[in-house]
Amino acid sequence: MPIASQLNSPIREPPLSHISRHRSDTFIENNAIDRFRQITNAESNNIAPEDSKNGDDHSYDHRDINAYRRKVGEIVHDERFDVFILILIAINSALYGVATFPSMKQNADLISDFEKVDLAILIVFTIESSMNIFYEGKRFVRDGWLMFDLVIVIISWAATKVKSLQVFRIFRAFRFLTKVQMLRNVVVALFSVVPAIAAITVLLLLILYIFSVMYTQLFKNFFEEGYTTVNYFGRLDLTLFSLFQIMCLDEWSGIAYEVGEQDYWAWLIFIIFVVMSAFVVVNLIIAVICDALQILRKAERAMLFGLSEDEAGEWEAKDNNSNEQVQTEEGRIQQRINDMHRMLDEVVASQEKMHRTIQYLSIVVNSQETKNLSSGSKVMQ
Asked: Is the pTM of this model over 0.85?
């Protein structure tokens, strides 16, 4: 069968969902790569009939392994399998919470049943990681989320042998991050703004230190003199903890009233610190995280439609401007027309990208066929 016709045959894709869309896209890409390699190597791996009779049929063993890998890939990237793993993670996390109840700790039978269920769930997680390793191969170590799952499984097995590590078994709940797309986006956004958050954290620590020294020098004797019920500012470390409590807005007014009864002007220092720390710096961190999520959304849109980040930003700006201009019925109708034009342009861009990909694959396939024909003619000669 010609290679081009085999390449055009449909590739079986798993169902997509918001839970595992990223992993499903990776499965489709990997499946396509494996399919292309199998097709382009099919003729070159054929064994002569006389070699086949002698048992030299290693190519068919290789094809069987590829078939098993694709089957395993279909299983681990199936939506139902992901939902099953999510349910196990939820059950396992809930059991760890139940295990902290006093009635649970005092019942040896319940503890034994809990350990059996926990071990069974751990075995399922281990099988899942093994299937991912078998399917992904060398690509496994390049996937940070799969490596994170493997580390969690290894820690869990270590906890079964070392009693002091059993407290870390609850880390399996972190596997929600690898299974839910929205949580992954938040984590990716957080890691992308680590330098900005680090700079803001340094600014916050500087503000805390400056005000701690100031508060300690001004109010360090208030507890000894009976003006405050708690030693809030007697030492620098106590002042740092008290200012952290004030920054979190945890009953800070009570501390301010106690100090203000002796020094009425102290309220001004408290308000300045609260505004600078709780309102300005903390909101800066929130703004940076929101900006990172917006950048991540543009990047996903650019990857989806083959656009650059600037073009994706222009699409985003057009959407925002269009939403502001929709005020009348005519405006809403025009908005719908503009949306249809935009969707059509996106489809055209996607088709052009697919066309370029098909052209590239056709060139590769034709060159491979030419190479096989030339090698076949040399054999005939």
From this structure: no
